[in-house]
Amino acid sequence: MPALRYFLVVSTVLILVLTAAAVSLSLGVSRPLYEWIASSALNRDVRIEGPVALRLGTMTTITVNGVTIAGTTEATPVFATVGSAAAQLSLLPLLDNDITLSTASMTDVAVFIDIDENGQGNWPAPRSETLEADRVDGSGEILYGLRANDVHMERVQLSVQDTANNRQHVVFIDALHETLIDDHVQVISRGTLNNTPFETTMTLDGVVSLLDIRDWEAGWQGTLGDADFQLSTSIESLDQIMRSEINVAIHADSANALLQTFALPAIKDGPVDMALHTHQHDSRQLIDIDVQFGEFHIAGTADQDLAALWESGHVALRASGPSLSEFGALWGTPNWPTTPFNIDLEGSVEGSEINVETLQLNSDAVTLALSGKLPGYRSLGTGSLSGMIDIPTLSAFSSLLDLPRQLQGSLHGTVLLTRDAGVTDVLLASQSSLLTLELSGRLTPGEGFSGSTMHFSGSSAEPSQWLGLVIDSPPALGPVQFSGAATVMAPETVALEKLVVRMGKDVLAAEGILGWATAQHKTAISMAVQSHNLRTTLTPWVPSPQFIPSVPATAESDFTYPSADVVHIENAVMSAATGVVRFVGAASLKESTPTLSGFMDISVPDLQPLFTEFTVPQRYQRPLNLKANIALAPGTIAISIDNDQLTYGSISATGHLSIDLIDNLGHFNWLASAPDLMSYLPAGKNGIDRPPMPMNMSVIGEWNEVSLRVQSLSVESNEIQIDAGGFLELASLEFISSHLDADININRLSVLNDWLDFPFPDQDLQVTADFDSRGGALVIDTLALHSGDSDLIVQGTIERPSDPQVALDIVGTRLNLDPWVDALRERNDTKSKRDYRATDNQYVLPDYPISTEWLSHFSADVDLQIDELVGMPRPVFNVQGAFTMGNSGIRVERLSAENERSGGATLTGSLLSRPETAPQLDIAIEGSELVLGIPKAPSEDIDSLPSYEFRSKFSGEGTTTRKLASNLEGHLNVVMGSGKVLNAGFDRLTNSFSQELSRTLNPLQSQREDTSINCAAAFVAVDNGKLSGKPAIVVDTPDVKIFSNITLDLDSERIKAKFKTVPRKGLGFSVSSLFNPYVEVSGTLAKPKITVDPTNT
User: Fold this and answer.
1) Which residues contact 872 (CB under 8 A, 6 or more apart)?
2) For 547-581, how does the pLDDT look when each residue is reduced to its tens digit (9 = 90+)?
3) Mean pLDDT across the chain, nearest whole number?
4) Phi and psi (nearest 5°) for 14?
5) Which of 24, 139, 314, 329 is the most buried (most CB within 10 A)?
6) What is the pLDDT of residues 109-132, one digit of tens each?
7) Which residues pair with 495 in a beta bridge?
8) What is the 3-state secondary structure (H, E, C) of 33-85?
9) Longest Cα–Cα distance in the chain
């Protein structure tokens, strides 16, 4: 009101100035004076662009056109424009301090109001020094009276841009007519509010002056769209307006139509009825309110002390509705739970402080209770509220938050909000089945809460459920603790500081800038991980953790996010005692084809720490270095190595490998070279003076789940040459296109001894292979092996790649095993002595496993024909055999051989698998005219040796050789004919106990060149692993007869053998006394002992 009065005074002075100017000056010349007066009055730049007119008389008329009032921002450079304004003023009443406007009009008016985020508008604020007191000497009288008898306004537009609430309103007044007759004022207006038409009528009774509000009766009624409203009140004075009795009533058939008018979200529609009544009771002002808005109902009361007004009062409100989703729709979030709710608010005012005693939301979906204090009405944005929140299940908010199943548990917590000086401090503590969280920070006003800071910490007992958000089957993980801080740098940009995640003894740390939405490209995060034990850390993630070294490890990397679907990875390093891995590259996050590509550098100083399940020989513990370009996509891996950047010791390689894990495809192309393979010999042999052995190798090929193609395989060195290639179907029903060609040439097999730790003989090896598919089978046209003076040729067929059925014919004119037997015998003798010194062996029979499981993958029929087999104690001729192998086991249909005296032996038998029981062995051997037992002695005449007849049959079952022997059943029958055996042959027996027993039974053996044998026989039976014979052995020589009873437990290997020697008559007493009539062998096979008992006791 003071501003309005000031404006009228200024206008009067302005009119007087204009009157003087009309007499002496042109009005156009005085325009700057008018603009200066208006600018001073409004504290805003004012320009008059149109003509100015003044007509003097009993009534003074002034007309102004084209007025512009400047704005304050670039968005609203103009605050208001007036097309035309006119006023008719009676000058004589001015002498009585009365301003009477007979008529006034304004047309084509536009006002632009801009309200910023802080609620500050751009309207003019007159200077404080111009707002002087409007009363004289404190008398309370108004200096001036004002009456406006007839005012018209047309085409007036008011545009309001509310940035804080992101809304825009437009009020357009088509016409407004105000009349003042006697003490009755009536204002009639019509127009639109946000395109909704309105018509209103306001009346004031008891008006003497528009500047003197005293004992007015006011009424206002009208329509807004389909809504109608009424307001009535009595105003005693401006100071008593808050003590006035006010009645307000609003009715509308559609709540949504009213919401649409004010640019608010729609809800479930319904009528609107509002009643507000204020009245006095004793010394207090009482307010009753009852609102039905659609399906919402709000009711309550308020009261305040008339003496204290705003400094003492109380309010109690309750709001209720059938659905929280409708309540959320008012704030633009309509997907809240569809459950009934009520909100209770109770507060009081004492002095300048507002006490919020209860602010509580109750529903089945969520309970929120807050209380606290606010400094006062003028500081509603400051103060402190605290309370609790309880959500039984977050699944109720799944439509709003789109939460995955893993996060739909309960949530309980406390919250504290403190606001002061434009900033809000937040303290939140929550507990749920997934997470315990404590969050504290400060929210600062401004765009996107820039400058806000947050500190957070918490733990999760089941982090696997969080991982379930991004992977289908997360591993079981231990509890996780985390802490950190963040600062909002700008809208959609956060600076992450000191984020630390701990799981057991492992620690992850991260910091940097995190951007999202339009600021996503600003993301730049540095991460570091410390693993106390690499195997323990990776155990939940890998299927075979036993192959991961148990060493501490660290990893760090920098990540940037230049575009929506690309992450750059820089300075990625993983370090451990086993080596260092570096990576630089990028990850594409496209949903259809996410990829990872870049350059990887791996440096491993020693291979042994990488292999935890076995010991790497010292000579193979060389550094490994790899520099490669890699590309990973869903199901695919590609590795490319250039310029010999894969090195292992002195070996270098170049090549490419690509694998498609989805379609089981692979391609490879590798070149490798070594300057000297001799450098990989054992330490004790590496220093021996040998010529270097350089080697080059190349291989090119591809594979898939049904075939393998080797385009070329080449190995070149001065000792070994390999040239091979072919195509092999692996999982089809027939061989259609398979073929294989190979030539292998090894000049000296012995060069492999030191690398493979096997005593190869010092002779060559040539292998030639030619396989081809015909008629659905892989035909072995040629598989020829030549080594030394041995030759073998293999021919046959292989059918059904997925379930191979093999038929082989093996033919050889000569197979010389002598170099191999000598090498193996020397190795075994050395190993036996070493093992005997290292361990105290209890048993002689080996305990080898017996299994036929490996036979389930194929079946085979093998025919064998070797003309001469050399390398046994005596040559063997005409070796023939027929074998079958398959899922049921091994069957020896026939295995026969002949010796130099046309004797022969035949073996038949089987080792069969049985469901859920141990393998079953059955074997039978028959032979005649055999020469057995003692290695060939020098100058031995084969025709003088005794012949043997041999019959045996055994059966048993067991998963190891010892278990098989422990339940063996069968018999052994040997008959020896007459002949002579050189005693030198006995001396070559390797078993010293056998030599001792032989000399004990026949003392004359050492005195003669040979021993004549008339005949001999042996028969033993085996029952459940118990061997017995009574007699078991009978030997008749010209000098002595020997009888023996034997028992042997094959399980414990305990033996008891009694020998009785009877010298022939005629030897004489002195010779006969050399024989021991009774000799006993006892103990075990591993530790037998001989006892001589002349008295047979």
Assistant:
1) 817, 821
2) 788 889 999 999 888 877 788 889 889 888 778 88
3) 82
4) -60, -40
5) 329
6) 999 988 877 667 787 765 544 444
7) 487, 513
8) HHHHHHHHHHCCCEEECCCEEEECCCEEEEEEEEEEEECCCCCCCEEEEEEEE
9) 189
